[in-house]
Structure formats: structure tokens, C-alpha cells
Give the backbone structure.
Amino acid sequence: MDEITQDKCRELRGMLAQAGYAVFFGGAGVSTDSGLVDFRSQKRGLYNRPSEYSASPEEMLTPKFYEENPEEFFDFYRTKLLNLAAPPNSVHYALAEMERAGVIKCVITQNADNLHQRAGSENVIDIHGNVYINTCEGCGRRFPPEAVADCPGVPRCGVCGGVIRPGILLFGEVPDMKLAMAAIREINRSDLLIAGGTSLKVSSAPRLLDRYRGKLVIINDEPTPYDSRADLVINAGISEVFARIWP
Ligand code: APR
Ligand code: ZN
């Protein structure tokens, strides 16, 4: 890590020590070191790769495609997004320790991978859903992720035969209002917001950040549209940064 980035990590340590209510807002870049994909990075983003399906990933992750092409949707979901074997990484564990130490009060994540919870974080708001919440569209029964991961084709409820819908937010769907309001409350209560591993290009970002007036720190290995508004921007690998800011 170069000298300038090291200095910035020292600065972030100081900001964390001063903060009264620090909140973390994360995205796919938090889980890439666990082997999961991100969506928009130049080098490896899922949306920047040629699609071997009949539509682009952004078109496939829509309610219309899900309704009209369930077989292909579930094949894409299982092949590209769902990876139950992926373990929490050092950033997930550091955030959980920081929560126990009272340094981080809440983790708001756009990821649906449940890795923050598996690492031990308790106050987690999954604003884009969670792959551990799978619901039968016929009778409302809940199913574990294996009911979707381990079955070929379209997963169906053994009781009523309804399709088991993974609990992830698709493009164009309205987020869970309870979760969105909870996230906005946490952010507006915070005096230090760390946005990590997210391109901040999706509607959740403006919805959550636009009324935020506290200190903003961005940790991302590529520029984001919010960099000019941030008090500190650290363009580096998020695991390397967390290794220097905690413990
Ligand atoms: N360290 C730092 N930054 C990283 C790392 C890493 N190890 N790995 C990836 N990144 C960066 C990428 O360069 C990218 O800028 O993380 C960012 C992730 O941005 P996106 O791929 O756009 O993911 P995200 O911001 O979470 O997308 C939000 O969009 O596709 C929808 O619902 C989906 O939740 C997702 C939402
Ligand atoms: Zn059912």
C-alpha cells in the first residue's frame, strides 16, 4: 500500500475514534474477496462481461424476465449470483468486531449474501434483500436457500406447487419500505458514514445519502459519483484498508 493511502487509513482511524455514531454502507465490493462477483467494476463486473444468456444480466434481473423466463432466470441466479459456500472475509469479520466494540453502530448493505450476519454483525439492514429468505408464491411458506440452490430448474413448493421466489430485489421493484426507512434513520443519525465496495450508482445511494450531512468516507478501488462530496476517498482494496483501520 502506498504512503498516501497509508496516511488516509491513519486519518480514517482518527475519524472513527472521534465519531459518536459511525455507520457502514456497503456493496458488492465488500464480498469480492469472498469469491462473489461485483456488477460494475471495469475489470470484472458481471454487467461488463459478455452474457451467455438470451439477455443481459440487467435485463435478466427484472420481474418481467423472472415471470417470462423462469428456467433461465434460476439458472443465471444459481450460476452467477448464489454461492452459499462463499465464506465471510476479513472485512465482514472486522465490521462485526467493530460493532461489538461499539465503533460501528450499523451495517447497511446492498448485498443479499448474508455474509455480514454469518460473520457476527447483528444490526444489519439488507436493503436489497437476502438469499436466505425464499418464499413460495403460492402459499407464502418460507424455504432455506438450499431449496433454490440444490434443485435443477424452477424450484417449487412441495406443499402447493408454487414457485419459490428468492428474496432478492429485482431492478424496478420497490425496496422494502421498512428496511429503507430504517436505513435512512441510521444514516441520518450518524456523524460518520463509511461507504465501502460500492459504485454508488444505483438508486439506493441517492435515496440514502442525499439528505446526509455528516462526514462521508468512501473506500472503493474505482472512482464513484460521490467522490467530490466525500471528506475522504481511499481508492484501494477494502480488505487492505480494513487491515489498517482495525483493530
Ligand atoms: N476493494 C475495493 N473496491 C472493490 C473491491 C475490493 N476488493 N471489489 C470490487 N470493488 C468495487 C468495484 O470496483 C465497484 O466500483 O466495488 C464496487 C461495486 O460496485 P457495483 O458492482 O456497482 O456493486 P453495488 O454498488 O453493490 O451495486 C448496487 O446494483 O446490481 C444492483 O442490486 C444490485 O446490490 C446491487 C446494486
Ligand atoms: Zn406453497
